[in-house]
Amino acid sequence: MMRCFIIILILFLNIVSAKGQEFTVMFYNTENLFDTSDDTLKEDEEFLPEGSRRWTHSRYWKKMDAISRVIVAAGEWETPALVGLCEVENLAVAGDLARGPLLLNAGYEVIHRESPDARGIDVCLLYRQDIVRVKDVRSWVPDSELNELFASRNILYVKTIIFTDTLHVILCHWPSRRGGTLASESIRDRMSLLLDSKIDSLLDTDNAGTAIMIMGDFNAAPDDPLIKRLSADERIINLSYGRNLRGEGSYRYRGTWEMIDQILVTSSMTDSTSVFTADMHKFEVFDAPFLLEDDPDYPGKRPLSTFRGFSWSDGYSDHLPVILRVSHR
After folding, report:
1. Distance (Å, rounded) from C-alpha 323 to C-alpha 266?
2. At the topology level of CATH, where does 21-328 sit?
3. What does the pLDDT look like over 243-254, one tens digit per residue?
4. Distance CA 266, CA 168 (A)
5. Least packed by Cβ within 10 Å: which of 57, 262, 292, 315?
6. Are 199 and 265 in contact (CB under 8 A)?
7. What is the pLDDT of residue 178?
């Protein structure tokens, strides 16, 4: 009898201790996190030891160490509970990162689903097993059109239980519209429509306090019409919008910062309807000095990337991570 009482007391204390806690969520474009093996089904030839990038085993592990250091630093006192990543080649690469020496003690597990992207760069999620449980995983792609197979990144959906409550997490990496091809714009539009419909489905089938978080590299600013579509009815709030207006960004193009890496949440997370709360003040670009270098072409700093052109620069990424502090009550 006493043993049962102690077990119940421990469970109760665990639930109580979960209330009022804050955890960190992070999204990071890792800039071509490829392994050194040839995947004959993907266009990865330049990232091989004999390829144009001279992508050796040594460079691979230096890159792993660099990305790991960014994740640890972004979490400050505690590693992020959720880390969304894009431009990761496959599950094995994500596993090498999660189980590397700097992140091993964080206890990260990996969620990854292979996408139809021609180059083989995918989105994936690292989650801390001591805080997060995974209840469902889905990989979403738009339907093919005109007998053509869809050949871009998927949308990764993960239903998580954090502490004792449900947080729906969606990861995106939309194609760039630079180059101006009609095919790219068509894919972006289809991705936006698909994401909008999936969000509607989650909101319609769950209760009013549904917590959904969308993270990704959208290759466009928060005021882009395809992104504004997601928040048109104000059920989704783009937490990146305020910092975008102030000229901040996660990516620098020809001397101008662009907020193309973003985090959006349901309005329930901003108006205290949900047990998870977040607002624009808790969103930031992680721009630690070690991630930046002087821009030789324009005034100011730029991300210290892995490559400049085809020259190895032994950096981190051409993007900066974005982070969000989320409270659980």
Report:
1. 17
2. Deoxyribonuclease I; Chain A (3.60.10)
3. 999 999 999 999
4. 10
5. 57
6. no
7. 67
